[in-house]
Every structure is written in C-alpha cells, then in structure tokens.
Amino acid sequence: MSDQRLLFRKEGRAIYISHLDLMRTFQRAFLRAGISIRHVGKFNPHPFISVAVPLSLGFSSQCELLDFGLEGGCTLEEVPARLNPALPEGLTILGAYEASRPTKEIGKLIWRLELLYDSGVPQGAEEQLTALFSRPALVMQKKSKKAKSGFTTVDLIPLMGAYRMERSEEALTLTIALAGQNPGLNPTLLGEAIGQECPGLKPDFLRACRVDILDQSGERFEGAQRDALTAGLAGTE
User: Fold this and answer.
1) Alpha-carbon gap, residue 215 to 135, rounded angstroms
2) DSSP annotation of 41
3) Helix (H, G, I), strand (E, B) or coil at 139
C-alpha cells in the first residue's frame, strides 16, 4: 500500500512540542479536518503516522516529513488547506504528495546553527572553528542506552559535511551538513564539542534549525525545501 507524505514547518512555540505529542497533535488534526487516514494494528488499531528523523525538543525546522495513508475525506491536493486550520500555531503544512522514496534513504541534514554570544562573537572565531573541523578526528562522548556505562564515544568528523560560516555582532551562523541517521549527529553534541575543544568559543546559547534534507549520495532528498543558504552545500562532502 503506497504512502502519502507531508512537508511541514515546525517553528515558534511549536518547537517545544515533543515527538510523541507531535504524533498525537497530527492524529487529532486529521480528525478535526475530517480527513480519513489508514489505521494499523490488528487488536488495537491506531492511525498510521510516521515522522522521518524526529526533531529534538527546542529545535525548529523548515523541512519536516510525515508519512501517512490517505483513505478519504478529501483529495491529496486538498490536504494542506484542510489540515492547516486544525493545527496549532507554529506547525504549517507546505505540501502533500505521493511518497516516492523511503525515508531510510535520507543521508545528511542541512542545519543552520546560530552560536549566540552575549558579549559579541569572540575574535578569531572563524579561524578556530575551521581548524577544529579540519582535525583528522574529533572524538566526543554521548549518552547511549546500549552501552553498560551509559555512554559511548563517537568521532564527529566523518559525520560532518560541507559548511559555511557567517558572522554578525552577536552570533556566528554555521550552515552545515550533518549525518542524519544510522548514525546521526545531533547539533547539540557539535555545540558541546566546540565548547570543550575551544573554551573561548563556547556559545551562551545555541539555536538550531533544520533547513534541508539530502540523500545518501549528497543530492537533495525529495520533498525537502531548500532556501538560498543551502545552495552549494548539496552534492558536496
């Protein structure tokens, strides 16, 4: 049975909706919009909804993907107009279409990371970050449910792709391709690595927004919206 896919934004106050609550939110929104979707489960049927590469709490995104199975109530083309009024502020459907590729083919995610400094961006920040990202290895510890110690080590360098930096008075904006899954690289861990290896560059606050999705070959994954900031990053490693 073929699936349909939504492309949506998550921003504003909606960034504090957890992944499980997001699934419940969409289930209720489909009901309120009068859109019938496929249910799964033999003894306890529940709506089929699947969000690709769940977003961490507090992060925003311009290119979230949600798979579902449309059964009736409206056409696929009508779904965004019907669903948007039923969603809370900060969640916006950008498009609905037939899913042509499995989400397991997602490779890298393009992130816009803002390293914010209360006292202004430190001098030489760009040069220090360039040197840090040019290292042959950048090993960090992260939490792991599978490890007996509760932690595992990971080398960040193989999980990072092309990047670009822009500087303002109070923020250093890093647009960078990070591994999306199996394994993925959470921007929070990258921020921790910057603070650990370059203490003078530890940001007072890290703001993260997912802006594009690439496949495993580095090309744009279907359904993701790219803005001008990601141009030149797709197709590069």
Assistant:
1) 25
2) -
3) strand
Q: Which residue, chain included where needed, has tokens 């590069």?
A: 236
Cα torsion through 12, 212, 207, 179, rounded to 10:
140
Residue among 110, 105, 107, 106 at smallest CA distance from 177: 110
Q: Could you tell me which residues come within 8 angstroms of residue 200 by beta carbon, excluding any fewer than 6 positions away?
A: 122, 128
pTM over 0.85: yes
Residue with tokens 């920040």: 125
- What does the alpha-carbon distance between residue 214 and residue 53 come to, in Å, rounded to a whole number? 12
Amino acid in position 201: L
| Whole-number Å distance between alpha carbons of 32 and 27 | 9
**pLDDT tens for residues 165-219?**
999 989 999 999 999 998 899 999 999 999 999 999 999 999 999 999 999 888 8
Count Cβ neighbours within 10 Å for each residue of 176-195 and write b for 16 or more, e otherwise: bbbbbeeeebbbebbbbbbe
Query: Which tokens hold the place of 33?
Result: 């919009």
* Cβ proximity of 177 and 160 under 8 Å: yes
Residue 171, beta-bridge partner list? 116
Residue 169: which residues within 8 A CB-CB, separation 6 or more? 120, 121
Q: What is the pLDDT of residues 133-154, one digit of tens each?
A: 999 999 998 877 777 777 789 9
How far, in Å, CA of 152 to CA of 49, rounded? 31
